[in-house]
Amino acid sequence: MGDILVGTCSWTDRALVGSGWYPVGRRDAEGRLRHYAERFGVVEVDASYYALPGERNSRLWAERTPDGFVFDVKAFSLLTGHPTREAVMPRGLPADHRDPRVLDEVWARFAAGIEPLRQAGRLGSVLFQFPPWFRPGARAEAFLEECAARTAGWPLAVEFRHPGWWHEERAEATRALLARHGMAAVAVDMTQTLPSSIPPVTPVSSPRLSVVRFHGRSAAWGTGSKEDRFRYEYGEAELAEWLPRLRALSDQVEQLHVLFNNCCADAAVRAAGTMARLLGRARQTAG
Fold first, then answer.
1. Phi, psi of 31 (to 5 degrees)
2. Which residues contact 38 (CB under 8 A, 6 or more apart)?
3. Considering the chain, what is the average pLDDT of its residues?
4. How many CB atoms are closer than 10 A to CB 180?
């Protein structure tokens, strides 16, 4: 059985910081990360989607966390075809993901920014979260191939937001495509009431890693504000439903990351704590 690491999709989210979860005396940047890393084994770096990561921050994160703790770093928006603000681009470069010169420079800066984590053994994965308009087809497959070529040697995880990738008739082809490039498939938990809902399938496409992201089950997923989309309190019974699937995944990979993205106040850290407790109890029972 592989290691199961449980955590959340941010430790710096404004709603979490304002919730009171961090105790007095540990509310500065260093204190927050140390407090979080004492309780969980993995965290997702969400900020790297909005702005290119910096080497200094990566080095500090590695220094402030214990051995075995890892960061799943979300790929910068331009690298996944999302709209990107000019203000966060390197000086003098337009936010144009179709310009090879721009892409070369952005890829180089992203790689440099996460290198301290990689060197320290703290890079759990780089998460490529593709937009809803990234649909199955030849263009998308060529894009994935280019991503694989640029990230040789990195641990990669891929989350699709277009449900067509995981519809029953396509799912095995998608899994095989990711496996060919050494990319770990990301499974998701979300509401199943919308046309854009991703099926809760749990494919394994890499022996090294599997990732499950819990987005909450809000019906406002496709239309509401960030707070509306992610405002959700998981009940213990809902989390327990996932235990057989998580155990099955961990039997097939070296490491399983279970991440909570219902980032409103302290809902994600509480859900992560409950899931860690349930998984610990399940292991004791199995043993």
1. -65, -40
2. 66
3. 94
4. 13
